[in-house]
Structure formats: C-alpha cells, structure tokens
Fold:
Amino acid sequence: MINHQLKTWVNFSTPEARNIVRKILASAPHRELGLKMQDIYERAHKEFPDVTTDIPPQKQIPTGLRNHGGRIAPAKAIPLPPMLDHAIRSVKYLKKTVLEEMALAREVEKVHIRRGKLHEDGTRDLSLVSKGYGKMDMKSDFNMPTSEIWHWRLTPDYENKINNYPDPPIDKILWQPGEKEARRKARQTPPSAAQGKTKKFKNPSEETRELHVSEGVKAARANAPDFPALNS
Structure:
C-alpha cells in the first residue's frame, strides 16, 4: 500500500531493519570476518521475507499531468524500490542508511580483509583492518576468492550499543496539515510592481510617444531639416 501522507522515502534506519542486520551478522559462518553487503541484503529477504516495519517505507507517487516549460506532459514515473513493503526495501537503503547508522552507533564496522599465505591444512593467513580496532592477523579456513575484500561485521560489544539511536524523526517526512497548500502558494510567483503598471498600447507608435525624451532632444528633432525622398 502506498502511504499518501509521506512526502519522502524513510531516510533513517528502523528497529526492524537493524534487528535483521544483527541476526544475519551474528549467524555469519565466520562471525569475526562478517559478510559482504550484498550477502546481507540477499539473506535479509531469504531468511526474513515477511518482516515489515511499523513506519511505512513508501512515499507518494505522483499521478496525472505536470507542466514542463509551459507544455503539458505526463508526470515522470518514479522507480519503486524492489522490495517495497520489506523492512529493508533496497540495497541503497541498506548501504547508505541502515549500515551507516549502525556504524555511527558502533554496533557494526566495516573491515578490510587481505588474503595471505595458504597453508597445507587448507587454512590461510588473513589480515583484517578496521577503524575501531586497528589491524589484526589471523588464520582461517574462509574461502576468499579475491586478494582483498570489504566486509561488515558486528563489533565485540555491539549488544551494549543497541539503544544508541534517537527516536525516528517521523514528523519530518509526514505532510503536516496545510503544508502542501502553503508550498503551492509559495511557488506561485506574483506579478511584479513594474508589470502591474505597464500600459497596454494598441499600436507600437503610441508606446514610443510615451517614452521619456529630454527637452534638448525634442528641440533638436523639431529643428532638423526635412530630407527629400529619394527617387526610385
């Protein structure tokens, strides 16, 4: 369902979205290494397909006609998120909103993993670097197909940071009573004072005679000799 009271997409993380991310990262095969952002998104819809949020993530979809440069044209269609009703509606919302806010709250962190030497027992040396905890070397049986990769993982004390979020600013994305009308009136440009005083002349010559001309110019024009017309 489209909620016509919203004026923009929800641009903050919801408790439902954050809880999905926590559960997925907590159950990662290698929890200390975390997961790629795309893996988090795919698992969110595979393992939690029916999770929605109390704050609807939709915004009003314009319909009808709009004026473009004086011409009437159909309103440009706005692409909808691929998972419109889900708590994590799109990759962009997960990456730019949910994960970034959880990182600011120190619940999750982005780590850079570099592949090292492969040992006979199948394990491999890995080097992890994070802003919060610096560099760490370890051995793991993690199958890393590329030489380096970026992952998201839970911080060691993430459980103490779960409540480090302000109340959702729902008032900022809802249309308030009378707000639409006030914006519509503000967009209507009133005629300027000069336009209001402009006279409408039937003939261009009448408008020319009304222009201000100095007395010296008028006298020079009056005393100017008349030139004979050229013979054709």
